[in-house]
C-alpha cells in the first residue's frame, strides 16, 4: 500500500533533534485466513432471570429444515432482539417450527447461523455467508450480530464489490458499513467508476452513492509540532491511498 501526503516543512517547528513526529491511525482492509469468527457469548444478567422467572431448563426447540436447535429463553432474551424477545413472551410451547417462515435455502441457512451464534458465539466469515447473515440479522433485529457482520465485511472490500456492498448496506440499514464504504469509494472513485457494477447502476442508485461519498469525511493525519512551552496539533487530508 502506498500513502501519499503533501505538506511544507517550513510550516512546522521541529524538536531539538530536527525530527517531525507524525501520528497516524489506519484501518487496514484485509482478508482473514480462518473461516470462522469467535466472540464472547452474551452475558446473562440476574435481572433477566428474575423478569422471566424461568429455570435453566426452560428452553425452546427450533425446528429449522431438518435440524433442531434447543436454546434457553434466558439466552434468547439476552440477545436484545425484539424478534426473539417477542417469541419468549408469546410462544408458550416448547417447540417452534420455522418451516412456514423460512422458505429459501438462504433463509434457512442464515437463520441456522443466527441460532449457532447464540449458542456458540461463532460465525463463518466467508463473504457470501456474511452478506446473507447481515440481511438476516437486520430482519430479525439482532444488533450485536449485525454490527459484527458489518465489521468483517469491511475485510472483504475490493474495487469490484464495493458497489454491491454499499447497496447491501443501504438495504440492511447498516450505517457502520455504509460510512466506511463511502470513504473507501471516495478514495478509489476512479478505479470503482470503471467497474461493471458501477456502470450497471441505475441513475437513482448512482446519484445516491455519489451524494453519500460527497458527505463522507476524508481520512486525516494528525501531525503534532513541538514548540516550547506549547504543543499544537494540525490535521492534513490524505492526498491519495493506492494499492501497489
From TrEMBL:
Superkingdom field: Eukaryota
InterPro entries: At1g01640-like, BTB/POZ_dom, SKP1/BTB/POZ_sf
Domain BTB: 58-127
Role: May act as a substrate-specific adapter of an E3 ubiquitin-protein ligase complex (CUL3-RBX1-BTB) which mediates the ubiquitination and subsequent proteasomal degradation of target proteins.
Protein name: BTB and MATH domain-containing protein 43-like
Originating species: Temnothorax curvispinosus
